[in-house]
Amino acid sequence: MDESLHSDLAEDVSTSSSFRQFKIKHFHLDLSLDFEQRTLRGTETLQLKCIQDSQTELLMDIHPSLSIQDVSFCGTEEDSGSVKVEFLTRNFTSYGTTLVVKCPSPCKIEEDIQVVIQFVASDGPGVCWLKPEQTAGKAKPYVFTQGQAVLNRSFFPCFDTPAVKSTYSASVKVPDGFTAVMSASKGEHRKADNTFLFTMEQPIPSYLVALAVGDLVSAEVGPRTRVWTEPCLLQAATEEYDGVIEEFLAVGEKLFGPYVWGRYDVLFMPPSFPFGGMENPCLTFVTPCLLAGDRSLADVIVHEICHSWFGNLVTNLRLRWAQIIAKNQHQPGYQHVRNFLSCQGKQKYTLPVYRALWNGSEETRALATEIFNATSHQLHINVCKNVKKIIT
């Protein structure tokens, strides 16, 4: 087996960034929105640590629709002085390009640096502008971002790979009469200039940063849940989901452990939203079609909530636990591994467990074969193919 495909050194062909040379410790987005020009004018401040010596360039993922205006560089975040540096763009793929930032001097390993990038995001594939007639209220325009899987590079410069996770913060200035929401654990409204301030305290990959701006109102439907909608949908959303989401969260915690994200809010998107649901940490985007009036579609939220554990966490705790049992020959725990694998259905995140079992003892290999033979009928054909490659 080629371990380079399954280790932290595996190549990610979707990114051209220098994420092996620099670590993002935190980044801040300062955004100003203009509906008339259909632009997001922004300044991104990145706090980086050099993790490979003598780096002369910083590479970031961007998109042709993202216009880079200026790049500055300084040694530490305490250093008030900065210097403008050279930058250029380089072709990469059909879905993105590369921003090449020239370092003023070679960066040393363990050196902390701060990079400030001024940019303008327009009508890119990850920034979706809606006309008033495309909304439920049909009175005001709307904009939302769609980062998954590799589209946030048209929203802001980033290391667009799930291998990189960091905290972030943002300030979003919007026109009067509009509200901004983001996939963040904390948010507040500075009314003086209609600016919304956000902080994400958990490290996340760039594709999970999400923004929506529109004629939005909200209501609490649980101790840690709020529904966001256009005004004409608020009553329906409140009645449909009052108390319901907290029940789902409580069951999730019993099964998978603590819900670490703090909030779980739901944004009911305009009718033109092209997806059923899109999970983002702390704020799931969903279609208004879920407002059936009788709660018959409420359990669709369960799928999105599960991503709070399976996908959005830095590690999948149950998955990691199963791998540890297999690796360390905890035979009394094999029954729990068997139960875990038996209930996974079409999900693909069981592959690392099969890999751990097959790389173990004769007993773990037998367990892998037994479980696959018993459950292969419920697996997606692509999952079956991948498991067969592991255990044969």
Helix amount, in percent? 10-25%
Strand content: 25-35%
CATH class (first level) name of the largest domain: Mainly Beta
Outline:
globular
> What oligomeric assembly is this protein in?
single chain
What is the rounded Rg? 23 Å
Number of domains: 3
GO molecular function, one term: metalloaminopeptidase activity
GO cellular component, one term: extracellular space
Organism: Esox lucius (Northern pike)
Protein name: Peptidase M1 leukotriene A4 hydrolase/aminopeptidase C-terminal domain-containing protein
Task: Describe this protein's structure.
Helix 2 crosses helix 3 (300-306), helix 4 (317-327) crosses helix 5 (334-342) and helix 6 packs antiparallel against helix 7. The longest helix has 14 residues, at 362-375. With 392 residues, the chain is α+β, with helices and mostly antiparallel strands. The chain is built from 8 helices and 20 strands. Strand 19 and strand 20 form a beta hairpin. Zn(2+) binds at residues 303, 307. It comes from Esox lucius. Belongs to the peptidase M1 family. One of its GO terms (biological process) is proteolysis.
